[in-house]
Specification:
Elements: E1 2-5, E2 11-17, E3 20-26, H1 32-50, H2 58-64, E4 70-71, H3 74-89, H4 99-104, E5 117-118, E6 135-137, E7 142-144, H5 154-173, E8 177-181, E9 184-188, E10 196-199, E11 207-217, E12 220-226, E13 231-234, E14 237-240, E15 243-244, E16 249-250, E17 255-262, H6 265-278, H7 282-289, E18 293-297, E19 302-305, E20 312-317
Parallel strand pairs: 5-13
Antiparallel strand pairs: 1-10, 2-3, 3-8, 4-7, 6-7, 8-9, 9-12, 10-11, 11-20, 12-17, 13-14, 15-16, 17-18, 18-19
Helix pairs in contact: 1-5, 3-5, 5-6, 6-7
């Protein structure tokens, strides 16, 4: 997803981060340098804390120490709490213990380095150990993973970073702020007149060559999860990065994309990811949450829930995680 405004354009900067694109918009152009520094600080922190691909990250250390109790940092604790809460409220559909399953499928390096067509067979899938097996004391920040368990905090940690950076930047600058990290988008402060106009598309990095659907956002967050962008082939199969914890396999291909609006990006991302995993069960589950959602089936059929508005056209860039 990418934001564009209907009125005068705000100041904007885009740059690569966390294997995706970071987008920052502010309603006061003079505030852009300070807001950008806040965003970059948050991105450096989450990368050092939660990256699966850095040998010096705290997540790497925690995963290598599975089976042995350890004390984690406060930032790691915040990311873990968000991930465990996501697992709890989705009944395990979004589960941070899928790390080993994701690696087994071939997503064991940054996505840009994943082999697009790997001839090796896909290993036999195994269910994730499950979030309930994680021993965690939030008071002391003591954590013990089951042996041979790897955490993957990527989705909720990225959304948490969008939330935190938007809030911090708006508080520091006193202006309206939008932060987008791939498909995870959070806004804070006073939105521009008419709201932030968000174009919806499958890939945030590709330009939209013709008018497509868009929504106007004045507060809260949006998140889009999809199965088309981060996909590759292995052993003659097409795989994607959203894993069903119950099987250890990529979630069944029912929805091309799911976009959800919520008060926070963490909640929006949790719901959109859960919907992809739940497949045919996503519609009744999303209805039970009351969150506005837009689901696009494999054939392009659009399902709108929770008061999601009819599509109106937008031009420019758009995208989904």
């Amino acid at each position: 997803m990418t934001a564009r405004t209907q009125a005068s354009s705000p100041a904007r900067v885009d740059f690569p981060a966390l294997g995706t694109t970071a987008t920052l918009l502010v309603t006061d152009p003079d505030a852009l340098p300070d807001a950008e520094e806040i965003l970059r600080t948050e991105l450096r922190a989450v990368d050092l804390t939660c990256s699966r691909f850095r040998p010096d990250s705290e997540l790497t250390r925690v995963n290598l120490g599975a089976g042995v109790p350890t004390t984690v940092s406060a930032p790691f604790a915040d990311a873990l709490r968000a991930a465990l809460r996501a697992a709890r409220i989705t009944g395990g559909a979004v589960d941070p213990t899928v790390g080993s399953a994701v690696i087994a499928l071939g997503y064991d390096r940054t996505f840009a380095s994943v082999r697009p067509d790997d001839a090796r067979p896909v290993p036999v899938a195994r269910p994730a150990p499950g979030w309930r097996a994680v021993r965690w004391d939030p008071r002391t920040r003591r954590l013990c993973l089951p042996a041979r368990t790897r955490l993957d905090l990527g989705a909720t940690a990225k959304a948490l970073t969008s939330d935190r950076a938007a809030r911090r930047a708006a508080s520091a600058t006193g202006c309206g702020v939008l932060v987008g990290l791939g498909g995870d988008l959070a806004v804070a402060g006073t939105a521009p007149e008419g709201g932030w106009r968000i174009a919806l598309a499958e890939d945030h990095a590709q330009p939209v060559t013709e008018p497509g659907p868009a929504v106007a956002v004045t507060g809260g967050a949006l998140a889009t999860s999809g199965i088309r962008v981060r996909a590759w082939r292995r052993g003659g199969r097409t795989l994607h990065h959203i894993v069903d914890p119950a099987t250890g396999e990529p979630a069944a291909a029912v929805w091309r994309t799911v976009t959800v609006a919520a008060a926070t990006c963490v909640d929006a991302n949790t719901a959109s990811t859960a919907a992809v995993v739940l497949g045919e069960r996503a519609v009744p589950w999303l209805r039970s949450t009351g969150l506005p959602a837009r689901l696009v089936g494999l054939d392009g059929t659009v399902v709108r829930l929770g008061g999601w508005p009819p599509d109106f056209p937008a031009t420019g860039l758009g995208g989904a995680r």
